[in-house]
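Protein fold
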Amino acid sequence: MERRGPLTGRDGQCWNLSDTTLVDAAITDVRSCFYVHQKEIVLAGFSSGGGLAYKLATAPISANHAATFAGVLIENSSLSSVVGAGNVDATLNAAAWKLNIAHTARIGDDNYPLASVEADWAKMTTHAFPLQTREVPGEHGEVATDWDVFLLPKMAHWAAP
C-alpha cells in the first residue's frame, strides 16, 4: 500500500487534547504498512501525550473506538488533568471497557503532583481497572529507565476485548 506522506506530530511541543485525529492518522498509517493486531494496540504518552492517551482510551465506545485499545502506558501525567478532578469517576464509569493501565509518576513532579495522580489511581482501583503503578524519585522531565524497565514490559499480554 502506498504511503500518504509524512505524519505530523508534536515533537518538542505539548500535545493538545484535540490531537486525536493525529493519533488516529498515525495508527492508520502504521496499519497500512505493517500488520497490526487489532486487539493489541497500546497507547503511550509522556506528560501531555499521556493525557491524550488517557482521553482516547477512556472515551465512550462511540468516540474514537476506545474498545480497540488494549491499554495505556503513562509517564508523568494524570487522568484528572484531562477530564477534571470532579469528572474522573464519571469518565471511568463511561469507559468502553476496563482497559489495562501502567503508570509511572515522579515524586517531585510539579506539573502532575503525586497526590493528584494517586487520587486518580485510587479511583481507577475502585472502578476495578487493572492498574500497575510506580512512583519514582525525580521531577517532571526525568524519564530514566521507565519505558524499557517498567512500562513497555507491562503490555506484553494485553489485549482489547
